[in-house]
Amino acid sequence: MKVIGMTGGIGCGKSYVSAKMQLRGIPVYDSDSRAKLLTATDPAIKDALTELVGPTLYCPCGCGVLQKEVLAKFIFGNAENMSKVNAIIHPRVREDFKRWCIGHESKEFCILESAILFESGFDREVDYTVCVDAPLPLRIKRCVKRDNTNEQSVVVRINSQMDQEEKCRLADFVIVNDDVQDLAPQIDALIDNVRKL
Asked: What is the pTM of this model?
């Protein structure tokens, strides 16, 4: 099985492209969603994060619900704290992904979708990398509509991410999702190219 890592900045449409791949029978591991689930449920993550952030991180009522605003406050604008949190979560996500792969060994391809594929080092877990790209104005427009927010807050989020051009440069393949170029032939070409490699 060949593992394709798929990434792209906010508003580029990596999840949309992943969904198109899924329709072709290619399984997709959404690392962002899995990380959120594991952060909320994995005992090892919960214990380590509670020790790092404090006892108010998970609801003290006994239900164990993650208090997202407490975590957000802890990491906001603090690269060191963010790094410490990632050092707890990323290894568990990596293990979870490896277990997931075992259940899909019969497939020719699978996708590891991650917004932080290169930043997290998850690119080392895949055979090939793909960056979904889109023009900045379109990305902003999509996010404003999707998140019911304003342009300024979207730009702040975009600026906090790894540079999109750098992601494209690092990737083995680029898929352009600009609402002009057809995605189907680009996906076909990607699958054909990976199949030949």
From this structure: 0.90
